[in-house]
Amino acid sequence: MSRRAAAAALLALAVAGCAVGPNYRRPPVADPPTFRGEARAEPTSFADLPWWEVFHDDNLVALLREALETSQNIQAAAARVEQARAVAGIATDQLYPAITVEASPSYQQTFSPVQVPGLSLNKPYQSYLLQGSLSWEIDLWGRLRRLREAALAQYLGTEEAARGVVVSLISDIAQSYFQLMALDLQLDIARRTVAARRDTLALFEAQERGGVATRLQTASEEGNLADAEATIPTIEQAISVLENRISILVGRPPGPVARGDDLVRRVVPPEPPVGVPGTLLERRPDLREAEAGLVAANAQVGAALAEFFPRLTVFGNGGVESTSTSSLLTSGATIFGVGAILSWLVPVLNGYQTEHKVQSQRANWNALVATYRQALLNALAEVSNAIGSVQRIRAQRDRLVVVGRARRETVELARIQFRAGVASYLDVVQAEQNLFPAELELAQATGAQFTAIAELYRALGGGWRNAMAPPPAGPPAG
Questions:
Q1: Cα dihedral angle (282, 284, 287, 289), rounded to 10 degrees?
Q2: Would you state the torsion angle of the CA atoms of residues 76, 81, 87, 90, taken in this order, to the nearest 10 degrees?
Q3: Which domains does the chain have, with CATH numbers?
Q4: pTM more than 0.85
Q5: Cβ proximity of 325 and 332 under 8 Å
Q6: How close are the terminal C-alpha atoms of the chain, in Å?
Q7: What pLDDT, in 10s, does the model give residues 16-53?
Q8: What are the tens digits of pLDDT across the range 195-206?
Q9: Closest Cα partner for 451 from 178, 156, 169, 117?
Q10: CA–CA distance, 183 with 236 (Å, rounded to integer)
């Protein structure tokens, strides 16, 4: 049985029996039939797929596998889960008797200011005690069980928080990876543009030497070449920064990141199915964590209500006592005792302190309900925004492909006609000036297509089933 299954079983036992206060019920929340931007509700969602089936890239899979093993964020989240698990264990221990063992040596000396002949009144007294004690609060009204229920819910909440860290980390690394590939493509475009403009400059210089062109043409192309060359250091710096970011997310020192060759040749997957909005409550770790907080708050209300009723504690002790250690276990006097304590903090006489505790816990519950509903609304908005991004970026890229094809053809025709003396140098310069930003914009849109899908996967809670599962073996990340 997994730790989560065991914790869920304990949580079910926590609410069994006589326990005052309301049992948890999920509060009503917004439940639209479809996400905004979704053509129709799909019965399935690609967010149910493990991440290694969503991102078909060996280098990216290797990076994510490494991150799951070495990321400091994941290790910190795992430590918080262990801490909450221990706290839940403490709350469970409160239901059982507390047993203590006591060993108590003592020494007393009496002094008398009056001296009686033949009688010594100044004597030492030694005593040795060995005993065990038991104390047990009988949970008549479920106060301790409600406290344990709250602690277990908080433990499950930290597990969901840890899953949320994993889901966010997967998305962050995937998006950064595709942005990095888009920058590689932009760098390649910038270098090809520089090479092309050098050829154009050489053509203008040759024509200037032959008296066909003027210095104006050559100087203009020199400026265009310098403009393209200036973009290369900027892109290279952006690549370095992004590589460092990915390295830190993975849990390694800043350094190079292995990746694919060309983003343009990748086939962008079709618009993926997203499922129905109601599944977010079961899939997104942040919503599951928020609901665990509701379970804990509801249990705290019950624990506060139990304060209105008396507490019954039974106790007992037994052991031996002697004046010497040698006779402690042989001729020591046996001592024992049993008893019970019924304590009750009378609500009328304590300034309504208990009632105020109940009011405080109920107010906390109401606040968390509102927070939970707001979190769901935010989740719905995130999914809708991601759906819109996938659709709009796809449409934008389709148009940019057409623009890029037309601009490249324009440059080729302008150069041919310029050599033939049909077109002017201004036609060539203008064509090159239009091509460079169009190609850069297409590269950015291509990378944005993949990052938008990664963001949609995260917004849907993608990978929630397999967040902690080991991915398949693959090549190491370099």
A1: 90
A2: -130
A3: 3-94+141-305+356-459 (1.20.1600.10)
A4: no
A5: no
A6: 37
A7: 457 888 899 999 998 888 888 887 778 888 888 888 88
A8: 888 887 887 787
A9: 178
A10: 8
